Amino acid sequence: MAEDASGQDPFKDRSGRAALHPIRVGTAGWGIPKLSAPAFPADGTHLERTARVLPMTEVNSSFYRPHKPETWARWAASTPAGFRFAVKLPKAISHEARLAGAEAALDRFLAEAGRLGDRFGPLLVQLPPSLRLDAAVAGAFFAGLRARFGGDVVCEPRHASWFTAEAGALLAANRVARVAADPAPVPVAGSRGAGEPGGWDGLRYWRLHGSPVMYRSAYGPAVLDALAARLLAEAAERPVWCVFDNTADFHAVDDALALTARLGDAAARP
């Protein structure tokens, strides 16, 4: 067993328990509903207030429109050192170009979002439900992305062809983790199902869109209890991210806070 200079096993905390990788829980966007406001500081912008309580957020607006480099830099400067932004790839690349021939757009986007600096967390590549796996196109895209971007990358495919051993191997070869989504867009049985993580095994990224009504339903206590247990088990081996996207009826913030409370000291802090 390895020990550091103090005689402690570096893979365990001072209580002797196995040390966990970070578990970052957050929401899509950083709006604070009125009823959730008491859980946050009263002063500052919504982003500043969110970043003092939760350790991450997912930028979805970048999917729809570009942001100026100065905007990304301002967001980074508004947050503490431990805070991270997951960033969604523009639809111009994922949905319109469908991963092909979008090098110039990708370069421009990465130059803009790169102003986040060390606040830049995972890059999220969400694919349209109609996009069937084309190994040549996908392989070229992810290889090109990897040549340009050294951070974590996660992919949320939504066509059944992506939930196969071939697709999983392609993602793993490019160090891309497949998102575990709820509700699962493709109810494939077994470990390759859309509700389970796949691809590269060095990271877990959960996107919880609300169930049974997508974007609207809250997650009940029993579901959050089971989710906390699952994330704790995952964090024994790798970093874990969990994003609540059930924002339409303002449940995401409360669900993120409730899950963070269940995780206790294992939850990452800003």
What does this structure look like?
Strand 9 (204-208), helix 8 and strand 10 form a beta-alpha-beta unit. The radius of gyration is 19 Å and the shape is globular. Strands 7-9-10-1-2-3-4-5-6-8 form a ten-stranded mixed β-sheet. With 270 residues, it is of the alpha/beta class. It is built from nine helices and ten strands. Helix 6 runs parallel beside helix 7. The model is unreliable at 1-17 (pLDDT under 50). 38% of the residues are buried.
The class by helix and strand makeup works out as alpha/beta
* Biggest pleated sheet: 10 strands, mixed
What is the radius of gyration?
19 Å
Distance between the termini: 32 Å
Principal-axes geometry comes out as globular
State the strand order across the main sheet: 7-9-10-1-2-3-4-5-6-8
Strand content: 15-25%
Following the backbone from N to C, one meets helices and strands in this order, namely EHEHHEHHEHEHEEEEHEH
Helicity, as a percent range: 25-40%
Number of helices: 9
Indicate the multimeric state.
single chain
Number of strands: 10
- Low-confidence stretches are 1-17
Average of pLDDT: 92
